[in-house]
């Protein structure tokens, strides 16, 4: 009797359910605990009215995350485990069925094990919605969105795991490589960006790393499923990638040699890709590690060399399946030569990245700051107040950029110092953006030009919300004294509010660059409550002369700010730059108290001078411990530059 080949093979289906059916059942049980049972528990709870969901992904979020990233990989491993075991491979491929049909049996069953638990769970949630009051927790639209996003996320991870299974002969390696491959896009991007900044002056690694790059990795995107939308570009891309990966997997399976079981990689061309990919990844990681821990160029190069050797050695261990290996030095030397060549090309800057300054005719507006992270915060919250558009400011910013480039050849660009950093973001008329970030060594040489920009009326309006509101918009002002004091003043009278806002506005308009960047004389914190429920926060310091005079005239100053009457005495010691950033406040106080040459003073005039000139950070030339009369707490401040009182200089210069 002739054999008959069919599209549906009973023995194969039985084999699949016997080997992998338990995974689908386990997945269904997990979803039941994560959603229906959790929601039922909330509904039956007496305080359930206080529980709200952003969407269904908010219910037992950690359980759902684990299920999404683990179940698809387990399915891919167990469905195609026959490719890693000789007896199972011989049995499956002896059936009267083509490889393509075997593949579709496995993929169809795997997709079924994913989608069936999702559908059953969704059906239960729909029944809940129709039978009990859960509208405040989720809607029918939430159910369909949850089902769709969950399916596409799991199908994406499943397709990657299947693709990896086609090129390896080890189940453990299949699981490991799947997660590596899923995280690889983000990992390589982060490592590449973090290392390029050493070669290209002006390249802002923080700007690119602050972007939302999680979506390019399904593994990381799974941590933010509650933020995803079903009808989005990401879901469309995932759908296309799923189809592409499954087609590539079929192509590889039909060409895979069955005898290559228990081998790390069954296709020879994959071996060098794996080895050199691992080498590059570890090399970039170690270089980045030493750059963050030491910041020294020599250590960074040391990290590159050691990391590349370790990565190359580990790659050989995996491929040869033993730690006692013979390293192919010729291959490593070739790899090193290629990396050096690429680095040289990047450093030579053939596209003129470092010297590029946009033409003024192409510029629409420019953002300036000292931190790309602040740019992202501004751009997402109140973007209309972030850019400079006046022609004079744009010309000044371009001139600043050109000076940085020219002086950069004389080592004006140095180690990271956030206070001496400049971040520029050009928005061109064609909609494109150009970002540059510089950490300046000879910062003082740029101060005249920076002052022109920062002290301009337009810039001050971009950073001071108070300059953009009317006095009629203010409903209340709360002033709370700095330090360990229980002193505050509330201003609600309409006339006083108007006068206070006008005084504060004038002080903000008159601030110099030095006063804007260094808060000297920490008197009190100010909260300005607007009628639209927004709050403007200011720090009342010694640069607020008009507001200080107004507070004195109204007799409210002593009740609202730190004064010499609240201080018992002050201890001052020279700053040790090696320790002031590395120890706690209590340890710092002990060090100040133990200094043999420390200065102690309790005269009212000296305390007032110290309050007026102290900066709130610890980065000054002299550290000061402020001891309060009515509190055991101690404040640490510092003095630097022209704001060191004369009697302190006299003491330490003796």
Please provide a written account of the structure:
The N and C termini lie far apart (113 Å). The chain has a four-stranded antiparallel beta sheet with strand order 5-4-6-7. It is an alpha+beta fold and 654 residues long. The longest helix has 33 residues, at 99-131. Strand 10 and strand 11 form a beta hairpin. The chain is built from 24 helices and eleven strands. It has helices at 10-34, 36-44, 61-79, 86-93, 99-131, 140-167, 171-196, 205-209, 218-221, 233-255, 270-293, 297-320, 329-348, 372-381, 391-408, 447-454, 457-463, 494-510, 513-517, 545-553, 557-560, 585-594, 604-613, 646-652, and strands at 363-369, 421-428, 433-439, 474-481, 488-491, 524-530, 535-540, 567-574, 599-601, 622-628, 634-639. Helices cover 54% and strands 11% of the residues.
Task: Note the topology.
Layout lengths: L9 H25 L1 H9 L16 H19 L6 H8 L5 H33 L8 H28 L3 H26 L8 H5 L8 H4 L11 H23 L14 H24 L3 H24 L8 H20 L14 E7 L2 H10 L9 H18 L12 E8 L4 E7 L7 H8 L2 H7 L10 E8 L6 E4 L2 H17 L2 H5 L6 E7 L4 E6 L4 H9 L3 H4 L6 E8 L10 H10 L4 E3 L2 H10 L8 E7 L5 E6 L6 H7 L2
Antiparallel strand pairs: 1-2, 2-3, 4-5, 4-6, 6-7, 8-9, 8-10, 10-11
